[in-house]
Amino acid sequence: MNVKISAESSFRKKYEKASCFFLKTAKDVLNGKAIENFEIHQKVIIESFKSNNFNAEYNCEICRDTGKINGKVCDCVKTNIRKKLFENFDHSTPKGDFENFDLNFYSSESLGEEFKNNDFVLSERIIMEKNLDFCIKYAKNFSSISPNILMAGQTGTGKTHLSLSTARKVVSRGFSTIYISAPEMVSELEKERFTNNFKSEFELFNCKLLILDDLGSEFITKFSASTVYNIINSRLVKRMPTIINTNLKMKDIEKKYNEKDESGTTGARIVSRLIGEYKRLDFIGRDIRQQKLRTCI
Length: 297
Hints:
Blueprint lengths: L1 H23 L1 H5 L7 H15 L15 E2 L2 E2 L1 H18 L23 E2 L2 E2 L2 H17 L7 E6 L5 H14 L4 E5 H14 L3 H8 L2 E5 L8 H16 L4 E5 L3 H9 L7 H12 E6 L4 H9 L1
Helix pairs in contact: 1-3, 5-6, 7-9, 9-11, 10-11
């Protein structure tokens, strides 16, 4: 009995080691690529059985924990990768779920003729309820052809909460997702520029969903302006969905990104793409953080 427990424990460790490799190549595995890499890990697992000579209960009875069936990646590997992707994302980002997005922070009073829609005057709550519903459906049905989203509005109105909630749901469905602030993104890419290590740039270009938070809050330089434009434009060309959050109006974005641009066109090109290629969600209301603070005083 003790021998069996020891053998099973050894097997589990080797299986987990192989799973870590699968996580590193998750994008390829989920797309049905990198099959040849399984040969190495398949041998490790099989040898574990031979050397210990025991009848183990397989985690997956279909592929018998080899990770491959009929020359293709087994569904158990994809499931394991999805689980690990979600765990990694969940541990590295702030919490935010659709379930705890509180609409009570938004007023039900009519906003006036400016927000009239089909003879019906909207309120903060109605607008934000529509945004919430859109994001829930977007995350549920996310695919490579999902639209880009621009979340625009003043600080503290729920942009980060809904974008994080969307990201968490999309990741749980097995899509590689990066959530990063504009300042952090520029900082990371600037470091790689001097080390010739372009890992982050590759991931930003190729992840299934990129969520860029707080666009325009980064320190604007010639490098940062061209970097932001390059990321936005490259993902559009590759048809990779992107969600962008910003507190700025379009005219302010154009002005800000033109400041360090000798040609004076980078800001206009960024705005052109945001207006023409992104579905805009307007976030309105009073700063939720300040509302919460007042209730604590």
